[in-house]
Structures are given as C-alpha cells and as structure tokens.
C-alpha cells in the first residue's frame, strides 16, 4: 500500500555561479523537531496515574527519541479503554519508559509484555519491574517488528500499544505487524506526529486501514493519538 524544496542564494554574492539547495524539510520533519524540543525540556520522571501503582514514579533518561506518553493522554486513553483491564493480555511494542504497559498492569492486566531494543532502557525497565514486584510483566530486548511477526504471537493480545520513534517512520509497518497480534475485535493504540490520514505512505503487504476502524482519536500538543479496533 502506498499512502519542497526551497532554493536560496546569498544576497551579497551575486557573482556565485550556482546556488546551494538545502536538504528538503517536510512538515513531518518540522513536527519531529518540535516533539524533540518538548522531550528535551520534559521532566526526567513521570508517574503512573491509575490502578494499584498509582503515583509510582518512573525514571525517564535523556535518550534520543524517548517521548513518554503524557499523563493527560494516558488518562484519556484509559477512559476510552476502561479503568479495569483484568484478564487482558497487553503488548507495549516500543516500551521506552514502560509507561503505557505498566499503566495496563497497574489496572489489572494479567500479562504485559514490554519490548525495547536499547539496552540501557531495558535495564531501567527491569529495575522498575523488580521494584514493583510485577510478576505479570515480561521484558524483552528485541526488535519490535520482528518479534510481532513471529507466528506464536498470532492473535494473542487483547491490546497492543505502538509508540515508535517518530524519526524512523515505522507507523504503517508497526500497524501491519500489530494486526497479526490481535484478534478481530482487538485493540491497537498508536501515537504519531500527525493525524493518521496524514502519515507518510509506506509499502505494506496488506491494506492496513481496511482491517482497522478508528474508535477514538485526539491530540495533545504535537502528539496525535489513536485508538483503533481490528475489524478485518
């Protein structure tokens, strides 16, 4: 599936034989820079906002591309999903700080998997898991897309969280992989720098949006968030 350039010349150098064309900057590039600016100035700690671990602090290291989901977005998301996730199996595919997956565990999810490829973040997640004695939480250092494509994941989860690095443009690939992990009626949550319809196009093996229905969506600052339900 497949979903300008500016030229300039220096006003004081008319004798130059050519002008230099800067690297194109798309709207998505500008939005990514805005998100990164906010992330750099963000607090180095966030707190869980609901369930048995409410108010528990989570460390947020200064790591490139790390954007913990803000508390007001998490509050909105779990208002949509419901506050009690007892019995749910949940996957946080790009875990980072672990805020989304741990919020689900705090609200009763019986099995939560946190996937993260950065070793330092994995160690921090493991330390938080040990501190909370969260036996229902499983942490794996891995590439999220490869992990989700494994046959054993087929239809296993009730809910998949997707908050991929914005610079990597993994949105459609992540949605396609997440489709494998949830059954019909299952939920997928996605964060992105633009509304879903405005995301840069990418090749996928299936028509992702033919399989998904947008249940709810919102925006908080530079971040757009979407709750999707698998319908096909």
Annotated CATH architecture = 3-Layer(aba) Sandwich
Q: How are helices and strands ordered from N to C?
A: HEEHEHEHEHEHEEE
Q: Note the gap between the termini.
A: 16 Å
Helical fraction? 25-40%
Number of helices: 6
Whole-number count of domains: 1
Q: Biggest β-sheet, characterized?
A: 7 strands, mixed
Number of strands: 9
Give the C-alpha Rg.
20 Å
Q: Assign the CATH topology.
A: Rossmann fold
Share of β-strand residues? 15-25%
Identify the CATH homologous superfamily: Vaccinia Virus protein VP39
Derived from helix and strand composition plus strand pairing, the structural class reads alpha/beta
From the spread of the alpha carbons, the general shape counts as globular
Secondary structure topology:
Blueprint: H1 27-41, E1 45-47, E2 57-59, H2 71-81, E3 89-92, H3 99-106, E4 111-116, H4 119-132, E5 137-141, H5 144-148, E6 159-162, H6 171-181, E7 187-192, E8 212-220, E9 223-230
Parallel strand pairs: 3-4, 3-6, 4-5, 6-7
Antiparallel strand pairs: 1-2, 7-9, 8-9
Question: What does the model show?
Answer:
This protein has 232 residues and is of the alpha/beta class. It has one domain (31-230): Vaccinia Virus protein VP39 (Rossmann fold). It is built from six helices and nine strands; from the N terminus they run αββαβαβαβαβαβββ. It has a seven-stranded mixed β-sheet with strand order 5-4-3-6-7-9-8, with helices on both faces. Strands 1-2 form a two-stranded antiparallel ribbon. The longest helix has 15 residues, at 27-41.
């Amino acid at each position: 599936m497949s979903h300008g350039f500016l030229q300039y010349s220096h006003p004081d150098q008319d004798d130059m034989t050519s002008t230099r064309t800067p690297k194109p900057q798309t709207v998505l590039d500008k939005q990514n820079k805005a998100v990164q600016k906010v992330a750099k100035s963000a607090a180095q700690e966030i707190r869980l906002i609901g369930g048995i671990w409410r108010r528990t602090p989570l460390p947020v290291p200064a790591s490139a591309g790390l954007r913990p989901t803000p508390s007001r977005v998490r509050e909105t998301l779990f208002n949509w999903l419901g506050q009690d996730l007892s019995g749910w199996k949940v996957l946080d595919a790009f875990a980072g700080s672990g805020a989304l997956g741990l919020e689900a565990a705090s609200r009763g999810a019986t099995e939560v998997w946190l996937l993260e490829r950065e070793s330092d973040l994995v160690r921090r997640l493991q330390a938080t898991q040990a501190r909370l004695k969260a036996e229902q939480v499983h942490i794996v250092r891995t590439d999220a897309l490869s992990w989700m494509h494994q046959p054993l994941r087929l239809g296993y989860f009730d809910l998949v969280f997707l908050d991929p690095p914005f610079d990597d443009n993994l949105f459609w690939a992540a949605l396609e992989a997440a489709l494998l992990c949830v059954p019909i009626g299952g939920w997928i949550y996605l964060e992105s720098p633009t509304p879903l319809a405005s995301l840069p196009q990418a090749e996928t093996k299936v028509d992702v949006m033919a399989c998904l229905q947008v249940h709810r969506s919102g925006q908080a600052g530079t971040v757009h968030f979407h709750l999707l339900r698998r319908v096909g």
